[in-house]
Amino acid sequence: MLLNISNSTINRNNVAVPNTLLEKTCRIGDTIQNQEMTIALIIAGGVGQRMHLQTPKQFLSVRGKPVIVHTLERFENHPSIDAICVVTLPAWKDIVRDYARRWNISKLRWIADGGATGQQSIRNGALEIARHAGPDDVVVIHDAIRPMVSADIISNNLAVCREHGNAITVIPCAEVMCRSGDGKVSTVHENRDELWRTQTPQSLPLRTLLDAQERAIERGMTDVTATVALLLRLGTPVHFSPGSEKNVKITTQDDLSIFRALLAVESTGSIED
What we know:
eight-stranded mixed beta sheet; Spore Coat Polysaccharide Biosynthesis Protein SpsA, Chain A; 12 strands; two-stranded antiparallel ribbon
């Protein structure tokens, strides 16, 4: 996703929202934590339509492990992550649990059903987290198909979130961007200095995430895939943290080849698989 916004500031929203979804889900006395937690929400509900494969891309094996396991290990090994919730296809929930046992993903706590859209999947995950966590706990939303996310990217995203109330991982736009309605011809280009490519993780407090989800539904927004797009459409400024070109999202066969090469370099110093 591309963003065209100027630098803004936002105060963290600590205002109580009466009679909302937040209150219906977060006020469970025996499950709210006394100390703020940081919870990774891994979105793995895609069916892999763009790659035309029977196996969803998050479950493809690369160098002996499914893509989702590579991703889970990044959060398992990060010292600031206390727990992990995975949102996935109902038929794959038991497989995800088996992956966690096999590869020692001890922070995996909860698994929720994926929804018909990305927005619904994130909502389902947030509702599952709300059954066990407090409203001020931080949720770190991340695509299961971004397995090269680094510890620094996660740390920087959390630091920005704690300072400003939300954080969106971004990288600058290096290419000339043309606007086209049909994808065949263009007569105008955009100022790339004002464009930023968004990635995940995207972090915010649980109460903010639930409130945004509820307000979106009230306004008829039901298919806003990314949390950053949802916040912006609701008029909430978002704050940037640095990403990386290596933080690739696997949506095509070319992306899968890039991931294999990056993983080989990271693990062995060689691009040979």
